[in-house]
Write a structure and sequence with these properties.
Helix content: under 10%
Low-confidence stretches: none
Strand content: over 45%
Number of helices: 0
Largest sheet: 7 strands, mixed
Mean pLDDT: 97
Radius of gyration: 13 Å
Order of helices and strands: EEEEEEEEEEE
Length: 126
């Protein structure tokens, strides 16, 4: 069974940085794309970033491009999201997620991701 566990969220002020981590288990981590998705208060889940199995391909939502960086450590079965210069609009619950099939990108559509963590809350004050 696939397990994903996020950590690293918190309450910060605008302009601060946070680094989210997502530890995984249950299958060969280095064969699967990983993604970050967030859900702002009262809104639907939205794509943030994705990374391919060997970090060759990355993609970001336009709203975070240049400020967020996704990375992974296959030896640790962990994916990260470095978030710099945070804005209040980044307030959301952040989830890591992964598709069902090997080497298959979930793309920017959250419904394409089969496995999800429980999420970690990020709150950014003005």
């Amino acid at each position: 069974q696939v397990h994903l566990t996020e950590s690293g969220g918190g309450s910060v002020q605008a302009g601060d940085s946070l680094r989210l981590s997502c530890a995984t288990s249950g299958r060969s981590f280095d064969r699967y794309y990983m993604g970050w998705v967030r859900q702002p208060p009262g809104k639907q889940r939205e794509f943030v970033a994705l990374i391919s199995a060997r970090s060759v391909d990355v993609d970001y939502a336009q709203s975070v491009k240049g400020r967020f960086t996704i990375s992974r450590d296959n030896a640790k079965s962990t994916v990260y999201l470095q978030m710099n210069n945070l804005e209040p609009e980044a307030t959301a619950r952040y989830y890591c997620a992964t598709p069902l099939a090997r080497e298959h990108s979930g793309g920017r559509e959250p419904t394409n991701y089969a496995y999800w963590g429980q999420g970690t809350q990020v709150t950014v004050s003005p």
